[in-house]
Amino acid sequence: MTGIVLAAMSRTPDPRLREIMASLVKHLHAFLREARPTEEEFETGLDFLLRVGKASGAQKNEMILLSDLLGLSTLVIMINNARGAGETDPALLGPFYRAQSPMCAPGESISRDARGGEPLAMAGRVTDLGGNPVAGAIVDVWQASPVGLYENQDPEQPDHNLRGRFETNADGRFHFRSVRPTGYPVPTDGPCGELLRAQDRHPYRPAHIHFMFSKEGYKTLVTQVFVNDDNCIAADVVFGATTALSGNFERLPDGTSRLEFGFVMQPGKRRLPRAPIP
Ligand code: BEZ
Ligand code: FE
Questions:
Q1: Would you say the pTM of this structure is higher than 0.90?
Q2: How far is the CA of 214 from the centre of ligand 1 (A)?
């Protein structure tokens, strides 16, 4: 059976499409031979995928969420970005990234909400694989509010709250003020939530800040820094947290948290991702 399907697809003119589809069919057939689903189970599976598609739209991409929950998104990121040459671990862009957030002056606060939160001061340094500073890189930063919602999920927050872009100085350094991030659940109101409940999995991501570094001549680095004492740090529902991305969000006597973190970019192509939702 597998051979017949592969033969039927063998004239695909695009060689990469031919390679990808052949591999997909081989693995899907092997999966069915191993799991041996009943016809009812197979129908349930197809219906689940149909519902994932129907739950996706301009405001929510349930398909990406499914890929996240199965570890596929993180695996693709690792395959394409992790070289093991000393660069910072990549992590998910996530569904809440917005392009063109405000350009900020060094040290400016990205907290634009009068309700504030626990103050945070972040200082970072960007270097290349040889330890040399990367000057003039654009650092795009975004995070969830203290109630665990991104500004584009929450009509109560001002536009671009907890988002901003900074530029590294001649020594590769940047710094900004914000609020201490909190963990949050991924959306659980759709079929992916049903799956998590059926698997007895919690829906939480450990508290984190998203970072994206870009500069001509360097591979764009999309990553996250996680609060190292978060309860979920070892059990991120989307498998993005790594030990190397754990940051010490030290609480100072005046109640401010302070995070220092170094980021390493690798040479390559500057590529800016498409924002998942507007
Ligand atoms: C996030 O980091 O923002 C995120 C990633 C995957 C699913 C949901 C949220
Ligand atoms: Fe996030």
A1: yes
A2: 20
